[in-house]
Amino acid sequence: MKTGCEKRLEKSFRKAPVIPLHSHSKVVLISDCHRGTGNSNDNFLKNQHLYYAALQYYYSRGFTYIEMGDGDELWENRSLSTIREIHSDVFWQLSLFEKEHRLYMLYGNHDHVMKNSSDTYHEGIILKMCGCAQEDKNACPKLHCLEFYLTHGHQAELLNSTLWRLSRFLVRYLWKPLEQLGVLDPTSAAKNYHRRRKSEMRLSSWAVKNNCYLITGHTHRPMLGDENTRYFNTGSCVHPRCITCLEIENASICLVKWWVEVKRDNSLFVAREVLAGPISFYELG
């Protein structure tokens, strides 16, 4: 008998759009920006410059941008328009991706209200390596069935999926004011080690059971999977001193960190560092 987590994950991909991948495809996967309203609860503020620098890098190099959910903090905040006003530079940059049809958005638990806002937001997306496509002369026939299933990952927990309205109420009226006093939300998989570990085990188990590669965010812990675990995680944009993401390029995937580095003359610059990988799709296929 299928668990609630398994049923919720399968539902996420039942009508998921399929995006073809080729040997020349460039895709960046970013999750959990938690863009807020510029106040003390806005966890995105400390890394906004890193994020914007990363956006410019990926836009100028022809990457497709996929946001993996919880892009906007709509549990603590009611108004999306205020968030867009505060972080107008970010939304302007995202609009450039959208104009060139290089933007896809998933919704998570913290921005679940975006589900019915437009056709832009999805619960799941499937990236499929089209190794058999005639127009892709460099593709390997082995890769014609290689698929990556993308979703936020909150489906692993009942409280953050089916009961998301209850969780939103608790966050908005209980944990938000307590956060200012240094009290962490014990119901959050990103802030509670045991809940995070359970979520990761459920997600990895589903991927192995369904013989597919699953990519999520939600837990905020970056992870580069392999053919055994089959589970990848983008990490988040609210780490203390960096943001992390997954890059797909040259038929491979890697885990990347953006952070502030210091030159010998003590000047600062935004640096990009590969934390793990790249793993070739030939190895996964």
Task: Provide the CATH top-level class.
Answer: Alpha Beta
- Overall mean pLDDT stands at 87
Distance, first to last CA: 29 Å
Order of helices and strands: HEEHEHHEEEEHHEEEEEH
Can you tell me the residue ranges where pLDDT is under 50 for at least 5 consecutive residues? Answer: none
Model description:
The protein is an alpha/beta fold and 285 residues long. The chain has a single domain, classed as 4-Layer Sandwich (Purple Acid Phosphatase, chain A, domain 2). Helices cover 28% and strands 25% of the residues. The chain has 7 helices and 12 strands. The strands form 2 sheets. It has a 7-stranded mixed beta sheet with strand order 5-4-3-2-10-11-12. The chain has a 5-stranded mixed beta sheet with strand order 1-6-7-8-9. β11 and β12 form a beta hairpin. α2 runs parallel beside α4 and α3 packs across α4. The longest helix has 17 residues. The chain is globular and about 45 Å long. It starts with a helix and ends with a helix. The relative contact order is 0.17. The mean pLDDT is 87.
Briefly summarize what is shown:
Helix content is 28%, strand content 25%. It has seven helices and twelve strands.
Primary descriptors:
single chain; 285 residues; alpha/beta; Purple Acid Phosphatase, chain A, domain 2; 7-stranded mixed β-sheet; 5-stranded mixed β-sheet; 7 helices; 28% helix
